[in-house]
Design goal:
three-stranded antiparallel β-sheet; 5% strand; 5 strands; 12 helices; 323 residues; two-stranded antiparallel ribbon
């Protein structure tokens, strides 16, 4: 320690190990090395930032565990929605595929997402206590969107809207809406098939969704309405459009094209079953052929979707926004 002429100690530093300590007691690190405060401050800031998010994730898991378990059970037990197993993986891939874009989005917390969170919680309350599965499942997507908006900002929500929308494909349609879709499909398929079969030499008499053949009655039941192939083909068309097209308009065209393709394929399946009854063996027509034709027609539908895509490629592409 140096003493000045006036008797007062001059400002100096005492070397303790490798860290100089000033007279004021502060530790100054050598050049290029972080100080004690810096080393301890950064982990604390990271923990302070991610701790609330981790707590929210845990709360979401606790709130939606039973709802998710019932949803997975429905995917397994209801053939019309077995494609739901693929949807979460595809949504996760969408987020991973846009990781660079998401990493460049500035994080700006916003109170504007709070009303959406409150609305989602209200939907969850109604769905749980009203025994309405669709509402409780839908609330998870709305709540996730509200949390993203609140913690990460509206721009992040805009970047993630497509993965969130894809999750809707994994939620089974409400029973009241499902019945309103399947019954008209049954009647339409029965009517078209009953008009086509006489052209092929098979006399028929239709009564609603029942087609009376000369040998036996052919009932177009709910399982034969085509809703199963329609939902699965629509979901696969969304996947296919994302990987093969970069414009939003063409993706929409592919997705919408799957609807008439699936309906037409189902009519062709019913016509094929009627021909099998008339010219082959009725027992085989309602047994092996009926099940096998479902898989064959679905593969044919995928082929038709591919040809629609190839036809679209003949049209010049204008620059358009991508999802």
């Amino acid at each position: 320690m140096a003493i000045t002429a006036g008797g007062l100690p001059a400002t100096s530093s005492i070397e303790v190990g490798e860290n100089p300590i000033t007279a004021g007691g502060r530790v100054s690190a050598p050049a290029g090395q972080p100080g004690v405060g810096e080393r301890s401050g950064r982990p604390n800031s990271v923990l302070h930032h991610w701790a609330p998010i981790a707590m929210i994730v845990v709360l979401l898991a606790a709130m939606y565990f039973r709802i998710a378990a019932k949803l997975v059970t429905d995917w397994y037990e209801i053939p019309d929605f077995s494609h739901g197993f693929l949807v979460p993986f595809f949504a996760a891939f969408l987020v991973w595929d846009r990781r660079k874009v998401l990493g460049a989005v500035p994080l700006r917390q916003s109170w504007a997402g709070i009303p959406l969170i409150v609305f989602a919680l209200a939907i969850l309350f109604v769905g749980v206590y009203g025994a309405e599965l669709f509402s409780s499942r839908l609330s998870f997507i709305l709540l996730t969107a509200g949390l993203i908006w609140t913690f990460f900002g509206s721009r992040m929500l805009r970047e993630l809207w497509f993965p969130l929308a894809v999750l809707l494909l994994a939620i089974p349609i409400p029973a009241i809406l499902f019945n309103r879709i399947t019954f008209p499909l049954q009647l339409m398929a029965s009517e078209v098939a009953s008009n086509v079969l006489p052209m092929l030499g098979v006399p028929v008499l239709r009564d609603g969704n029942v087609i009376q053949l000369p040998i036996m009655r052919l009932e177009v039941a709910e399982a034969c309405s085509g809703i199963r192939s329609l939902m699965s083909l629509f979901t696969l068309s969304v996947f296919y459009g994302y990987f093969t097209e970069r414009t939003t308009a063409r993706r929409w065209i592919l997705a919408l094209a799957s609807i008439p393709i699936a309906v037409t394929a189902n009519v062709a399946r019913i016509v094929g079953t009627g021909l099998c009854v008339q010219y082959w063996d009725p027992s085989k027509a309602v047994g092996f052929f009926h099940e096998f034709s479902g898989w064959v027609m679905f593969l044919v539908s995928l082929g038709c979707l591919y040809f629609v895509h190839r036809a679209m490629e003949l049209i010049p592409v204008r620059r358009a926004a991508t999802v």
